[in-house]
Write a structure and sequence with these properties.
Length: 116
């Protein structure tokens, strides 16, 4: 056999061999095996991330509840300012009555008993 003919046959054999290896390497069962390996390696990390996210969500929900409760309390304080003004007016009135009573009582103690 001549040299070019040998090279041609060698090239055909290597091409067929390369094609066979390519088909074998990319066979669906190999692809599924690689996918399974990937899932097995990455699943624990993904599960940990999920658990972290759930924990952060719970903490966030707690913080949101706290802020909403505080806003509600502040709104209720603002709404109750009318009542605080009313109580303030009543306290001033009570202090005024007390002062008047004290003044009347001290004035009556200065008078002789016959004038009472």
């Amino acid at each position: 056999m001549e040299e070019p003919e040998m090279q041609l046959k060698g090239k055909k054999v290597t091409d067929k061999f390369t094609e066979s290896v390519y088909v074998l390497a990319n066979e669906p069962s190999v692809a599924l095996y690689r996918l399974q390996e990937h899932v097995r390696r990455s699943l624990p990390e993904l599960a940990q991330h999920k658990a972290d996210m759930q924990r952060w969500e719970e903490q966030s929900q707690g913080a949101i509840y706290t802020v909403e409760y505080a806003c509600s309390a502040v709104k209720n304080l603002v709404d109750s300012s009318v009542y605080f003004r009313s109580v303030e007016g009543l306290l001033k009135q009570a202090i005024s009555i007390r002062d008047h009573m004290n003044a009347t009582q001290s004035h009556s103690q200065e008078l002789p008993p016959s004038l009472l």
